[in-house]
Structures are given as C-alpha cells and as structure tokens.
Amino acid sequence: MNVLDGLLQGFTAAVSWEVIPYLIGGATLGLIIGVIPGLGGHFAMAMLIPFVFRMDATTGVTFILAAHAAVAQGGGLTAILFATPGTGQNAATLLDGPAMTEKGEAGRAVGAAMTACFLGALFGAVVLTVLLPILRRVVLLFGPPEFFMLAVLALTFIAVLGTKGAINKGLIGGALGLLFSFVGAGNVTGERRFTFGLLELWDGLSMVPVLLGIFAVSEMLDLWIQGGALARKEKGHDARSVQKQIFNGVFTTLRRWWLVIRCSSIGTTLGLIPGLGSAPAAFLAYAHAKQTSKTPEKFGTGTIEGVIAPESANDAVEGGALASTLAFGIPGSSSMAILITALIIMGVEPGPEMMTFHLDLVFLMIWTVILGNFVGTILGILVANPLARITFMRGSILVPILLTVILTGSFVVHSSWFDMIVALLFGMLGYVMKKLDYSRPAFIIGFVLGLMVERNLFLSLQLYGTRFIFEPLALTLMVIAILVLVYNVHKLVRTS
Amino acid sequence: MPSKETDKSNVGADLVFCLFLFAMVVVFFIMAIGYKSVTRHAPMVVLIPLAFLLLLQIALAIKKLIGIKDSGGTLSLQVKIERKNLWRGGQLFLAMITLIIMIYFCGQLFGIALFLILFLRFFSRESWILALSLGIGVTVGLHLLFEKILGIPLYPGAIYKYVSGLIGI
After folding, report:
1. Rounded CA separation A336/A333 (Å)
2. Which of A373, A392, A482, A491 could bridge to A121 as Cys pair (CB 3.0-4.6 Å)?
3. What does pLDDT average to over chain A?
C-alpha cells in the first residue's frame, strides 16, 4: 500500500458511520477528563483501555486517540477560566490565560486556545504525514541490536528529561517497569519467572490493571487525600459575554497564523524526542513568542499571543510523538505507551510492520488526531461554561464513582479477581512514586517495552554475541544515551 | 514552600521506599540465579544496574537525613499532616478492598450500587437522595455501557450463583 492509498483509506475509515460515534464519544470524554484538574491525557487513555478490547482496531484506536487529542483543550479551558491547569501541559497557558480572564477577555482567550490547539494538531499531523515515507526507509536500517539500543535510549531520555532533576529516580522508575514486565513465562524459553507460585502470574502481569493502577488508582488516592473541590477558585463569568468573545478569539488566532506555525514547529520537533512531552514544548513556544514579539512587555499581563503560543505547541507535540511510536514501536510518552498497549490488545503490533502492513491504520490515527481535535474545539467552544463547572465537583463524589469504573475495567479484561488486586497494589505503588517524584511515565514505558527489550537482546546476542553493541548504528545510539546521561548528571552536580 | 518537617518526612519515606525496593531486587536476584541462562539474561541486565541505582538513592537519602539532623532538626519521620494523609489513604484503600468483597458476593452491578450508596452517604457525607441517585445512576450506566453496548458480561456475584444453582435457573 502506498502513502496516498493509506491516506485515502484512513480518511474513509475515520469518517465512516461505524467510526464517527467513537470519534465524537472519545473526544467528548477526553474534553471532560481534560477539564478536571490533575487528570491528564494518560489518565483518559488508561481509563478507556478496558473498553477497547472488544472493539476492532479501527474503532478502538479512534476512540482512545480522540479522547487523548481533546484532553489538552479541556485543560486549556480550566487554565484560562479558573487559573488551574486541567493537565500539566497547560501550565504555560497560566501565564497569560487567567490574566486575560481578569481583564474580562475570558471568551477571547478560550476561543484562541481552542483554535490554536486544533491548528497545532493539524500541523503536527501534516508533518507526520510528510515524515512517513522517510520513516519507512529509516526503519529498514534497524535490526535487533539497534532496536534494543533505541529502547535503552528512549528510557534514558524519559528518565533524564521527564524528571525534575531527579535523574536517579527516573532511571529507577524505568528499570522497575522493565523488571515487572519480566514476571511470568519467559519470552524466549517459556520458563516461569518471579511468579512466587501464583498461578495468576504465569502469564505475567496484565497491562490493563498495571496501567490503571499506576495512573488512575493513584490519582484517585491523591484526589481523596487532598479532599475538597477540584478547582479551588471561582470567578464570576457572564456566560453570554464569554460566548460572544469566543469567536473573536478564533479569528484573532487565524490572523496570527505565522505565530501558530512557528510554535507548532517547536511542538512537533520536541514531540520527536522521547520524554520531553508537551509541557516543555509549551513553555519553549511561549518564550519564543515573547522573544519575537514587538511588545514583549505585554506578556504575562494577558496578551492573546501568550495563549496562542503554548496551546498550539501543546497539540503539535502529538504528531512528533506518534511518529516514533508508530515507526519504531518506541513510545515517546506515557500516553503513547498506553496507545501501544491498546494496539497490542487489539492485535496490532506497532513498529516497522505497522508501516508496511497497517498503513491505513497509521493514517486513521493521523486523521483521528485532526478530527478529534476538531470535535474537541467545536465542543469546547459551544459548551465552555457548563464544562468548566465540572471543576467544582467535590473529590469525595468523583473518587468513588471513578473507582468503581476503574476496578470494573480491571476486572472485565480477563474476568480476573487477581487483576483488581493488581490494580489496587500498583495504585499504591503509583501514589508513592508520584509523591516521592519517581517517574511513572518511565515506569510504564519500561513495562510496555519489556517484551521488545528482551526479544531484541536475545536476538542480538544470538546473531552477534556481546559484540552487538559495536554495530555502527547501535553504538551511535549507545553513545548518545551515555552523553545525554553524563551531560545531565554533570549539569545537576554543578547546579547543586 | 515545604517545611523542614515535610522535607524530613519525604526523605524518610524515600529511604523506606528504597529499602523496600532494594529488598525486592535482592529477592528477584536470588530467584533469577536459579533460572536457565537465557531466561535470566534480560532480568539480570535490569537487576544489576537497578540495585546500584537503589544503593545510590539510599546513600543520598541517608546523607540528606544526616544533613537535616546536623542542622538542628529531629529525626522523627512522622508529622501531623503525613499522619492525616496516611489515615485518609488507608480509608480509601480499605474502601477499595470492601468494594472488591462486595462485588465478589453481590455481583458487579449490585455490589457497585451498594458500595456507592454507602460510601457517598457515610464516607463522603452526602445526602441520601444524592447517594441513592448516583449509586443507581452509575450502576445503570455501567450496565448499559459494558453489557448492552460493548457486550461484555459483568460478574453476577457468588450469592446469585449460589441461589441460581439452588433454584435451578
């Protein structure tokens, strides 16, 4: 299948009657979850994983990716209206969004944020489409040693860049995830490992309860312990005036197209680097917008460029992150690790084969990112005010309801009681990791990559012996990993 | 700004967590030695660096604790706020265990309805009307979503299984 065929087939699938309800449903759920402070894209995707295992790949991927696509838009809404970022990636929007609200321009900021999100995602998707033919060739250069080293490099990046100065804790998180992925029958010999005599562990730890535990149960524990309402500040907003201003914000963003393109380029480029995620991209885009502005002094006081820049970079990240996830099977973020889990559950293996045999699915994902964001934008614009009220729901109501859904989700995948216990135990582990700053994304990515790491290590040793690390590309990747590690450790030692 | 007490508590908790992980790594290491060479390759590649990383983290935590002690703080790891958090976390953990037990006996739908009503009324201190409406609403929603739309059968419960066996349904 060539790229053009894939593009058309992906579009036809994305707008078919079987898929559209999942696209709209996923985007709506994503928007709602995004609005709730503390619950990010990985929470949305983890929550939806139990629902996809009875779906086919087309509907399942659309559902889960549409939800992920709309999360940032929901988060932007809360950041602007209540000075509380719905997700971490919206933190940069706090610099100017709430200031615009204070000036009575809440609607304008919301309109600009929603449009910037959509345009950013569109840009990221276009770049991904352009990159695909190149990636298809690059992938052919990779054999088992290169894939093994790429996994090591990705984990190093995520551990180093994804943690705030605690490199050791990031590496521990990644290694723990890898270790837990080895529980159960060995991938090569079938010999049972670390099962402690438990029959339930013979097949290994199931991905769904581990994911739900680490990201969903732990968030519920945190929410319950914090207590109170999700958003703590309430400011009066006149619903009618907000709606009127929204369209002004939309057109202002369209007029600032060059700023959108520049900031989206920053987002997409950073998205290609595993572990960086949306938040640094948003801050970098904000800094760039301020530096290149004719009126930099207005930044921080409620200027619309200060909202457009981070929001467009936020969503453009997804295009870059999807590229490495789909082409190499190496997730660039926790959300992408969950996407890989969903693909495996639905019988699709990400990586080089995906670029050859499932190109239609790759393009379906690209279209879903675009259309999911579009649906999210329209919904966000239409129901900005009622959506924002979700933030005043008390944690004491939300926690038990979501917990029942999470535990039901853990159970239904294998109809296993043990999976509910696993979700509970990993929930506690996730909570402790969150509180003590151990990297949960690195843990999940390590857990998802375990199978690939072991298989490629085995094949590399069989093919080249221990000399596999001296294969040119593998050696280059290893040197990059070591340099990144040494540079960051050196920087940390110097600053401390 | 985090207080000295909270810092101390976090460093102490970090030390305990690392010691626990290190003990787990040692157990895994001993188990891995007994496996076939090919089976233990990948786990060993992870276990050995992980053990070093944990030892480093333990050393850092001990150094920090000694630093805090030298600067005049006490080595008490418990502070009021942490105790309160621990108590609330424990509450929710027990609630989740209760939910699993309820689902086991009453089935997924009745167990969840019962759990939500009791939790919202007595833990969250919501009104009976809200507790009842949310309990029933969420249960109906889960039934529609899983059983009707997605076609995933939910667990009917040990009581139902026992009674249906008795009356021969």
Report:
1. 5
2. A373
3. 82
